Amino acid sequence: MTTTADPLADYGWDEGREAEDDLTALREAGLVPGRVARVDLGACDVVVADGPGVRALRTDALPGVCTGDWVMVDPHGSPRPTQAQLLPRRTAIVRGAADGGSQGQVLAANIDTVLIAASLAAEIDLARIERYLTLAWDSGAHPVVVLTKADVAYDPEVQAAVQATAPGATVLTVSVVTGEGLDPLRALTAGATTALIGPSGVGKSSLTNALTGGEAMAVGETREADEKGRHTTTTRQLIPLPGGGVLIDTPGLRGVALSGAEDGLSQTFSDIEELAGDCRFNDCSHEAEPGCAVLAAVEAGDLPERRLASYRKLLRENEWMASRSDARLAAERTKVWKTRSKEARANGIRP
């Protein structure tokens, strides 16, 4: 880790955060800022400043806190240090609930860069990359698609296809065996908070070890038949990087549902939305309308039909999740109204 005036600076703390959150009263009450490095079984490891360096405290977890969050901590709490307040998040990776519910799940908070890992040793799933890109763009961070295992297989056409699938994002080809692409990747992650996401078996743990310069994560073998791997990362954890900054490694994601990701969809499919601006009708659904610029691009071979199908699918899914959220909010409002009406009747007041 680099030496800085504030030992938490390497973990992402800056003067702007101190000012925007107005922590004077909290500090005067004896609270200190800390960053959540790991959440496990209702407790957290929180990194706080300790003289010229840092130390980790084990605290009880505030409701909803996740790896990467900044919290104010009472280091003298009993029987152990306690978290007193969750500070506002600047960015957050949020996926839809795995059970299809309306509540999203925060995977990591206050991140600057999202590394989306995909293995060149297996067939690249462009639709999956688009889904991850939507999640990353919607978080407010910058996405970087990392094509791993370039020493096992490399096809320039595959890289070109991924680049076309990721307008505005950075695409890097790397190999932890030969070192290819690692220097530019280290430059992108230096001094920043980086989250690493992707399915199991694509080399996330090996990539983490390469970036941290050690054996921070256990590495599992992949099956030769399909290059699929086992879950060697079981929880999200924040790991310091040698040149400053931190990396949040995450367990392999089997499924990634969207949750209110309109902005992410717009950026992931910016090429389609730009074409849509030339459609004859403002509410064109790009299905069969006359004068549809999107369908014309597909017919001309300028836009892959697969990409349009992926866009439609994610758009429908996001709209469905939004409708479930709206229904949940409506149900909660109805519940509050019924409670108030019951209380009013009990007090002899007609609602």
TrEMBL record:
Give start and end of each CP-type G domain: 101-256
What cofactors does the UniProt entry give for this protein?
Zn(2+)
**What InterPro entries does this protein's entry cite?**
G_CP_dom (IPR030378), P-loop_NTPase (IPR027417), Ribosome_biogen_GTPase_RsgA (IPR004881), RsgA_GTPase_dom (IPR010914)
Name the EC number(s): 3.6.1.-
Gene3D superfamilies, from UniProt?
P-loop containing nucleotide triphosphate hydrolases, Probable gtpase engc, domain 3
Instruction: Name the NCBIfam families on file.
Output: ribosome small subunit-dependent GTPase A
HAMAP family (UniProt xref): GTPase_RsgA
What is the protein's name according to its record? Answer: Small ribosomal subunit biogenesis GTPase RsgA
**What is the protein's species of origin?**
Catenulispora subtropica
The record's gene field reads: rsgA_2
